[in-house]
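Study both lines:
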Amino acid sequence: MPTNNRLQNRCLSFFLIVLLGGCEQQVVDPNGKSTTVGFPVAKDINVLVISFDAFRQDNLKAYGNKLYLTPNLDAFAAESTIFLNAYTAGSSTVSSFAAAFTGMYPHRVFRSWKLLQTQTLAKIFAEAGYATGATLNNKQLIAERNFGQGFKFYSVFRDQKDQRPVEEITQFLTTHKDEKFFAWVHFINPHSPYKLREGSEHLLTPGYEGVYLQNSGAHVQTYKPRRMREKDLKRIGELYNNEVFYADQRFQRVLDVVNELDLLDKTLIIITADHGEAMVEHGVIGHHQLYEEVIRIPMVVRHPAAVGSRYIEARVSNIDLLPTLASIAGLDYAAEDIDGVNWLDGIPAVRPLLTIQMTNNAKLSMTLLNDNYKAISWCTKSEDFREELFHLVDDPGELNDVIESNEHAEVVNTIFDFMHEVAGGDPCTVIDNAMAGGSMTEVDDETLEALKSLGYVQ
C-alpha cells in the first residue's frame, strides 16, 4: 500500500485560529441525534436558494466559529434548521451544482464538460407552474454547459464585488412576488482572489507589510505554505475572513429584499455553498482536495412553518435538495435515478456518501464516507495513484492515515470495494469516462479569461 506524507496538525497553528477564533469547533446538539426533520409539505410555497462559493462550513457560528464573521447569517440560522454534517457531492463549482440541480452524483450527470439533459430542480418547479430564475456569479456555470435547464430566467456573469447578483435577484423577486417561484442566487465570494473590503478592519492585524496587503492573488491553490512567511499566511487567512464578512453583507441585502416584499413567511430559504476551502490543514489553500475542510458545506434551512433553531446530526448531501425541495412543495419527480434522500421520508442513521473531484485534470479523486470511516482514492496519474483511509471519530482532522494499520485491516478492502459499488465501478475509470471528450473549445475568450482569473484554468 502507498504511504503518504502527513503534515502536523495545523489546527494548533495560529493560521486556523485566525479563521475560527479558536480550534474548539465542536457543536453540541441539544436535542440529540435525529433522522427526521419535521418539515411540513406546503403546496405553492416559494423556494429561494442562496449559495456562496468556497464558503467553509465553519465560517458560521452555528458550526463553531467564534469570530464576528457572519452576524447576519448567524441571526438567520438562529431561526433555522442547521444540518451539522452536510456535504457536497462535488468539490468544484460545476460538479457540485450538477449534483444539487439533479439529485445525482456528478459523474453520472456531468459528462464531457456538460450537464446531461435530464430532470432538474428547475424543470420540476417550472412544469408545476412556478416562475424559475437563477442568477449565478461564476463563469463555470455558463449556459453552454446546460445548467440553465428549466430556468425561464438564467444569467451567469463575473462580478468580484457580487453586486449584480443582488440586483438581478432583486429584480426577479420583485417581478414575481405575486407568483409562486423557485429561485437560486450564487455569490462568488469568498472565492479567491481574496480582496480587501471596507468595513472588515476588525478582522485584520494592524501594521501588516507584505505582498498580500490588498489581495491574496487568484492562484492560491498553487502556493507553497510551508515555504511562506507565517505573517503572509496569516494575512491570507484574514483576507479570506474579510471576504466571508463581505459575503454576509450580500446575504443581508437579499434578505432585506425578501422582507420588503413581504415574502419571508411565504418562502423556504436555504443557505448553502458549492464547496468549502482548505486553509493549510493539509498543506494547501484552495479546494482541490477531498478532506473535510473542502467537502463539508453549510446547510441552513428556514421553513416558514418550522421556524426555530434546531440541529440535525444525520449526514446529508446537496444531492438531497432535489427530492426534498420537490417534496416540501408537494411536487412529483422521477425518483428512480435519484441518488439523494428525501428528508421528509427520514435520513438514514448510517449512510454512505460520495464526493468527487473531476473537473481539474491535475486533481482527480473520489472519497466515500461510510459510518465512521472515510476512504479516498487519488486518481490523477497512474504513477501518483494512492489511497487513504481515516477513522473520523478518532481522527476528525484526517491526520492519521490508517490504511496500513493492523487495527483497521479488516475495513480496508471492504470500504474500497464498497466505494466501487456506490460509484458504479472503479473510481478512476468512472471519473475518466465522465470526463471523456470534455474540452474548453466552446468557451469564448472573455469567459476563458474569467476562468483563468479565478484559478480554474492555468
